[in-house]
Design a protein that fits this description.
heterotrimer, A alpha+beta, B alpha+beta, C mainly alpha, A: alpha+beta, Beta Polymerase, domain 2, Cytochrome-c3 Hydrogenase, chain B, 2 domains, four-stranded mixed β-sheet, three-stranded mixed β-sheet, about 20% strand, B: alpha+beta, Alpha-Beta Plaits, two-stranded antiparallel sheet, 3 helices, 5 strands, elongated
Chain lengths: ~525, ~180, ~350
């Protein structure tokens, strides 16, 4: 989607945004993109979606400069997902959001000097040496506001009370599926509040991309959400191809669709297993890992990778499909179908599992939309958010499949949706696998790829939600700003509300059922 | 949230039934063929590694054992990590033309992220990835390779074409 | 049936009469012999059990398990033990040193203590009191103290949560455990371990057959509660590796951890051993009332019967452990207090009625 930004006046921004949300029903904040617009100054682009019509708009807002500070009024009170998204922008650009009650850094250490995504950032290692000391942690956070004379004021807020029992779940914890740190305040075994901390595996992929050529940026996508490597790269290839206006052959579209679905199968199998493992049912975990092995074998024969697939490239595919690919995938479909029932028998229908998953991590539809919890985790709240249906890409408007939703709103619903989605993935693959048309697997591109000037946003249905890519090009061979919409950030943001009043063991269950991958959040 | 309208005993019955189903499945799997592949015992026998697997970069040689690389440095420029470092020098050939000649092709396997951009960039089919995956060493420096100097031979020639055949849905747990 | 009393009496005679030692010395030597015997048996069984667990678990999970150390991986456990022995034992800053050090010993003492109650063969019962069953449950409770001290003493928040869970869980499940044993004891009329087994010799005399319905219920509940007592899945809440990393023994290394590891497996065996003793006839062979068959069965030594039955129960518990997911702490307590406890009490009444009216076999 090429962005045509709406620009509001600085004074009326908050009111206009509220009008968009309430009157225009733009209740899903897809993402907030911070950007250094150069001469214009720092600013943000808000991408919004109307969940009834699936119409998307983008709003551009240039930060107001007060002395050395850049400020924008917060939209935290309109969309709950803005909480972490605005903190991310603050972290990277130093834009202070007025009225946001918790303006701390999100990814970088609290003692980091400067704001790295500003174009004038001094990357000299002497300014930010590699520190081996502990990160200083304050018990206070800060809220910025303007006083009546237009000066910036700060109000401290206390994060913890004196007698709070704080347990750090993570960063080194077996069930956070990576280096996520959930600072949890407990009352006995009951959760009072969760503060998520990110950045333990932050690699600055977006920043790196600004100095890479377009083909080079592709190399990094597989390393974000490694369980939806194909979709990540599909999204990035998609945005570049859309911007350049490349027409792909049918063969490419067929293969990409099949590969995306194989990847989804792979990811959901791992999910089914991890849910079991987090509850201590190692056996059920290994059953789905065993079957996942066959999915990976199918993909590896063609892509040459199991985790880092490295398969799509701008204008097509790295290589044609393997000679045995069609036969292998058909064998896989026949092999895997009976096992869906087995996963349910050994784990999904088990009474212990149901007792632990049902009514755990309750998230109403309204909250799911407000937090932007996409993917299967949001569809369990009855929110129809499947990008494959709402904004079709590749062949998804040609194949038959159902968007699985239910109204259970809890962890068990999320689990069931994954099981059904795997069946749908197999259904899509079976429709396509016999009919892959002949044609080019790669449309030859110029050695140096340049994208015309403009701003684009393109998203794919990743394994755990919407993976979106925002691209701002100035016509160079490198992107001016590349921003990925991580799938898991919103999931983790919603955990605080979901978990309040529930048991500490439920954090593990809800986290497993939400399904997030930390390198995807951290980028 | 579902209303809980099951009776006390109905619930107990349902619970016991679901537990018994689980036990039945695990008992069935107790006797099914296993999935462990016994690497490294199987490395020269039943091991399968995809032919396209990217294990490390090698330089192709023609029938005269000469490398095809002309030192155009396209791969060096395209590499995101600076993994490849090429040294060339200008030499005058017998018929008086000036020509660029490859002096050293340094490839740091420890830095490589196997994105295949170098292979895509090469216009002379001089380099390719091989599925030789046994590259671990005790010293990082030994990962710095000079591809034009080495005469590459895979430690596992049997897997170059994929090795033992692959069947989807089956594992080969044997070592022979 | 071979009576182990022959051996013990012979040793006693040898010490007193052949060597002419007095009471004190001969009892001392006998105690040492028995102690060494128990510890060696304990260690041997631990090795067998750990290997068995690894292989059985692997087979349930479609794996092969350890295959590298020795043929079919049989020496894997020895390698593990060696590793554990040479590992560094470190101390945690600000830990309560005394509690931290004593805790593993309490756990192992409780484990060895209960282990000593098992009747290995006719005449081979080390601790044979007239209130044997009561004493057994009492000794096994010492383990709770060890777990609680370990969690509290190691200055670790996960440890504290785990210790609380462990204590709550073990104390709760001791109720069912005790009630199930009492249900069985009603049939035999004695609490002495040797007496209980003695009462089960002869055709179809195992308590699980004699007591039919209530005995089967008691057996099943005993296994569930026993699993919880041994802290094994689906009741491994105190360890709960995916929630509390390793729970109360997170901060232990080397043999400190080794003791917990040993105790876990031996508790599994002890629970199986008690279930075997009380419900499955201990060392009593399978007798069906046909003389030819029975006399063949009686030729097989009692210890083979005992170990065979105990390991069958161990396998059953492993099957359960490797099938089910873990419960949550409140669900565990619900299961005990709302389902198992009432069931046990009802069962106890039922058994009493059956015995009073002589409706048992």
């Amino acid at each position: 989607m090429k962005l045509n930004n709406i620009v509001f006046d600085k004074s009326s921004f908050a009111a206009e945004m509220a009008k968009l949300k309430n009157a225009g029903n733009f209740d899903y904040l897809v993402t907030i993109v911070g950007e250094d617009f150069g001469e214009e100054g720092l600013g943000c682009i808000y991408i919004l979606e109307n969940t009834d019509t699936n119409e998307r708009v983008s709003v551009k807002m240039i930060a107001e400069k007060i002395g050395e500070d850049h400020v924008i009024p917060t939209v935290y009170n309109l969309w709950k997902s803005a909480d972490l998204l605005e903190r991310e922008v603050y972290d990277f650009f130093g834009i202070k959001f007025l009225g946001h009650p918790d303006m701390r850094r999100l990814y970088l250490r609290s003692d980091f000097n400067g704001y790295p995504f500003r174009k004038d950032f001094d990357a000299d290692p002497k300014k930010n040496p590699l520190l081996l000391t502990d990160e200083p942690q304050s018990d206070y956070t800060v809220e910025y506001n303007l006083d009546s004379e237009g000066r910036l004021t700060s109000t401290p807020h206390r994060l913890f009370d004196d007698d709070d029992f704080v347990v750090n779940i993570g960063p080194q914890h077996p069930s956070t599926h990576g280096v996520l740190r959930l600072q949890t305040i407990l009352n006995g075994e009951t959760v009072k509040k969760i503060y998520p901390h990110f950045g333990y595996i932050h690699r600055g992929i977006e920043k790196m991309c600004e100095s890479y050529t377009y083909p080079q940026t592709l190399a990094l996508t597989d390393r974000m959400d490694y369980l939806s490597a194909m979709m990540n790269r599909h999204a990035l290839c998609g945005v570049i191809e859309e911007a350049m206006g490349i027409e792909l052959s049918d063969r490419i579209l067929y293969i990409r669709t099949i590969m995306d679905e194989l990847q989804r199968l792979d990811s959901h199998l791992l999910y089914i297993g991890c849910c079991a493992q987090d509850l201590g049912a190692l056996t059920a975990f290994l059953y789905s890992m065993r079957d996942r092995e066959h999915v990976l074998n199918c993909m590896e024969e063609t892509t040459g990778g199991r985790l880092i697939q490295n398969y799509y490239r701008i204008g097509g595919l790295q290589d044609d499909i393997d000679v045995n690919f069609v036969a292998n995938v058909k064998a896989l479909c026949n092999y895997i179908k009976p096992y869906f029932q087995e996963y349910m028998d050994v784990f999904g229908n088990n009474v212990i599992m149901q007792k632990r998953f049902m009514n755990v991590g309750f998230l109403s539809k309204e909250d799911a939309v407000s937090y932007g919890v996409t993917g299967a985790s949001g569809r369990t709240s009855g929110w129809h958010n499947d990008i494959r249906k709402n904004h079709p890409y590749a062949l998804y408007d040609k194949v038959e499949f159902d968007e699985i939703t239910n109204e259970m709103c809890d962890s068990y619903g999320r689990y069931l949706i994954r099981i059904e989605e795997m069946k749908q993935s197999v259904r899509i693959i079976e429709q396509l696998i016999d009919n892959i048309p002949a044609g080019d697997f790669y449309i030859k591109q110029k050695p140096i790829i340049k994208v015309p000037e403009g701003q684009w946003y393109f998203s794919c249905e990743g394994s755990r939600g919407e993976i979106g890519v925002y691209l701002d090009s100035k016509g160079d061979k490198s992107p001016y700003r590349l921003k990925f919409r991580p799938m898991g950030l919103n999931h983790v943001a919603a955990m605080d509300q979901m978990m309040r009043g529930q048991k500490v063991a439920d954090i593990i269950t809800a986290g497993a059922a939400l399904d997030f991958v930390i390198p995807d959040i951290d980028r | 949230m579902e209303e809980n309208n099951k009776s006390y005993f109905g619930e107990v019955f349902h619970a016991v039934k679901s537990l018994a189903t689980g036990l039945k499945i695990t008992l069935k799997e107790y006797f099914t063929p296993k999935s462990t592949e016994q690497y490294p015992e199987n490395r020269k026998t039943t091991l399968h590694v995809s032919k396209r697997h990217r294990g490390r970069l090698v330089m192709l040689r023609d029938e005269n054992d000469a490398v095809k690389c002309v030192g155009c440095t396209m791969c060096e420029k395209v590499c995101p990590n600076g993994t490849i470092k090429i040294q060339t020098e200008m030499v005058t050939t017998e018929d008086g033309k000036k020509k660029r000649k490859l002096v050293d092709y340094q490839y740091d396997l420890g830095d490589c992220m196997f994105c295949q951009l170098c292979v895509n960039a090469c216009n002379f089919d001089a380099i390719e990835f091989t599925n030789d995956f046994e590259n671990s060493t005790f010293d990082r420096n030994s990962l710095v390779l000079h591809l034009d100097k080495e005469h590459y031979e895979s430690s596992l020639p049997n897997i170059l074409d994929g090795g033992a055949p692959l069947t989807i849905g089956k594992f080969n747990t044997k070592t022979k | 049936m071979f009576d182990f009393n022959i051996v013990t009496t012979w040793i006693d005679m040898f010490l007193r009469q052949t060597l002419g030692l007095g009471d004190f010395l001969s009892i001392l030597i006998e105690c040492i012999l028995v102690g060494v015997g128990i510890l060696v048996g304990y260690a041997m069984l631990a090795i067998v059990l750990i290997f068995m667990e690894r292989k059985v678990c692997a087979y349930f999970q479609c794996r092969l398990g350890p295959m590298r150390v020795g043929p079919w991986g049989v020496f894997q456990v020895f390698a593990d033990v060696l590793k554990m022995l040479i590992k560094e034992i470190f101390f945690v800053d600000k830990a309560d040193k005394l509690l931290y050090l004593v805790a593993p010993f309490l756990v192992i003492v409780a484990s060895v203590g209960t282990f000593s109650f098992l009747p290995w063969n006719n005449g081979a019962v080390v601790l044979d009191f007239n209130v044997g069953i009561f004493l057994l449950t009492a000794v096994s409770s010492i383990g709770v103290v060890g777990i609680f001290m370990a969690g509290w003493g190691s200055n670790n928040k996960y440890g504290v949560v785990s210790a609380m869970r462990g204590a709550v869980q073990l104390i709760s499940y001791e109720m069912s455990l005790g009630l199930c044993l009492i249900t069985a004891v009603i049939l035999t009329g004695t609490m002495q371990v040797s007496g209980i087994v003695e009462a089960q010799t002869g055709p179809w005399n195992w308590l699980i057959f004699r007591g039919h319905i209530p005995a089967v219920i008691a057996f099943v509940v005993f296994l569930v509660a026993g699993n919880a007592e041994a802290n094994r899945g689906p009741f491994d809440l105190a360890e709960a590796e995916s929630e509390l990393t390793a729970g109360y023994h997170t901060e232990y290394s080397g043999m400190g951890f080794g003791f917990y590891y040993l105790a876990e497996y031996l508790n599994l065996f002890v629970i199986s051993g008690i279930a075997t003793t009380v419900f499955l006839g201990g060392w009593a062979p399978v007798n069906i009332g046909i003389d030819a068959f029975d006399s063949v069965m009686n030729y097989i030594p009692g210890i083979v019967w005992f170990l065979g039955k105990a390991f069958a129960v161990v396998w059953l518990l492993m099957w359960v452990r490797w099938t089910f997911p873990r419960l949550r702490i409140d669900q565990i307590l619900t299961l005990e207090w709302k389902y198992l406890m009432p069931l046990c009490l009802l069962n106890l009444v039922l058994m009493t009625i059956i015995v009073a009216f002589g409706w048992h076999f």
